[in-house]
Design goal:
261 residues, Rossmann fold, 2 domains, 8-stranded mixed β-sheet, 10 helices
Length: 261
């Protein structure tokens, strides 16, 4: 494990593996760097792969007040450690974060995003207006399990009867441990989950972009089409049959091909 300080002094924990051009993996909601280990292992023969704990998770620190901009600073710190520029791959809301970083002008040379969270139609309800506030309230009341369930039902869209048995699953304690960061991801996706058409601000991204999806969730596919349609140098690809929790062995070849060009 390595540590780099972000712009506000928050320590960010990361791992480095492999050899070649730098590639940074950015996890989505509830994810920690250990979750990216399998994908990092598949990509390490071709790239120097960086995985890191987003702030508030795993071995990384946090700040008293959360701002989405600070997460972009965290990614900038990893890019600096990687040599000053790097490719980046973001999953789900991590894709939103990576796209925002590229829009802000971070030294990302190529960017890939798996099913970033863009709701652009009425195929599902938008996030509730008080989504972030409600998550914060649950966590502050020490109802972390309820916060995870709220995320699963309101953001992921799972029926409550599907979520209840998950509370006894081995993965549940790990999700509870980072439940406070669900509000962070809610702020990262922001208006992207409103159901409104995308604004032209995304056209400021000037690097090659690959937007991927699995074709299993209509609103994510529509969102992927929409964001790819407003980024000047974007490509689209569908890994048919892959769920939102995409298999590392399914996505690694697509990433290897894109980033090696």
């Amino acid at each position: 494990m390595n540590i780099v300080d972000s712009a506000d002094g928050t320590p960010i924990a990361f791992d480095r593996s492999g050899a070649g051009d730098p590639l940074i993996l950015v996890s989505g909601a509830l994810g920690v760097r250990a979750d990216e280990a399998s994908l990092a292992g598949l990509l390490a023969p071709d790239f120097t792969v960086f995985t890191y704990d987003r702030r508030g998770r795993g071995d990384s620190g946090d700040a008293a007040q959360y701002l989405a901009e600070r997460e972009i600073d965290d990614l900038a710190a990893i890019i600096t450690t990687a040599g000053g520029s790097a490719c980046a791959f973001g999953s789900s809301s991590g894709g939103n974060l990576t796209l925002q970083a590229a829009r802000r002008g971070l030294a990302i040379t190529k960017l890939a995003a798996w099913e970033p969270n863009f709701l652009v139609d009425d195929s599902r309800p938008p996030l509730p207006a008080d989504y972030v506030a409600h998550l914060r309230g649950l966590v502050s009341s020490d109802r972390r399990a309820d916060a995870v369930e709220y995320f699963m039902t309101q953001a992921v869209g799972l029926p409550a009867e599907f979520v209840a048995p998950m509370r006894s699953a081995p993965m549940w304690p790990g999700m509870e441990a980072v439940a406070h960061t669900l509000a962070y991801d809610g702020m990262v996706v922001g208006q992207s989950m409103s159901g409104k058409l995308l604004s032209s601000e995304w056209s400021a991204i000037g690097v090659p972009v690959l937007i991927l999806d699995g074709g299993q969730t209509p609103w994510l596919t529509a969102g992927a089409d929409a964001i790819a349609g407003v980024i000047p140098h974007a490509q689209r690809s569908t890994l048919s049959g892959q769920p939102h929790n995409v298999a590392p062995e399914a996505i690694a070849p697509a990433l290897r091909k894109f980033f090696a060009r």
